[in-house]
Design goal:
The strands form two sheets. This protein has a four-stranded antiparallel β-sheet with strand order 1-2-3-4. A three-stranded antiparallel β-sheet has the order 5-6-7. Helices cover 43% and strands 32% of the residues. It has two domains: 46 residues; 77 residues, PH-domain like. Helix 1 runs antiparallel to helix 2. The model has no long low-confidence stretch (mean pLDDT 92).
């Protein structure tokens, strides 16, 4: 693998916020279609759509979930904040694999001892194992 000299970033795929917004619109449309004069159904559909739209807005405002450079890792914190994790604070970089419903899910785990940062495929835009390999190589260099 090539030596990484500059910063490298992993971000949410650009199609994901669009899919979430489309889902929010679909929820409102279904709420209107099936409300049958019941305001509770419509309100529940609108609330679910608002939550999904808020999640999509986060993906647009802060698409970069993880970045690495020689100083350490920058991870997302809160809704759209950032936190620098110096290499000296990072205890382990692992990938947790679990079978669920006939599929295997992978999650990148960055353990600092005091906090655990988790990233899935949709956070990184690529396989967590590939990112873990690159992070470990950067850490050694």
């Amino acid at each position: 693998m090539d030596d990484i000299t500059g910063p490298r970033q992993w971000r949410v795929p650009s199609s994901l916020p669009a899919a979430k917004l489309a889902g929010a619109v679909l929820l409102v449309a279904l709420g209107l279609l099936f409300a049958d004069g019941d305001p509770v159904r419509l309100v529940l559909a609108v609330l679910a759509a608002a939550a999904l739209a808020g999640w999509a807005v986060r993906d647009v405002i802060a698409p970069v979930r993880l970045a690495v450079d020689p100083a350490g890792l920058t991870v997302i914190r809160g809704f759209a904040g950032r936190r620098l994790l110096p290499w000296s604070e990072i205890e382990a970089i692992t990938v947790d694999r679990r079978p669920r419903l006939g599929l295997t899910s992978e999650v990148l785990e960055i353990d600092t001892g005091e906090s655990l940062h988790l990233f899935g495929r949709f956070d990184l835009g690529t396989a967590p194992e590939e990112v873990a390999t690159e992070l470990r190589a950067t850490r050694r260099s």
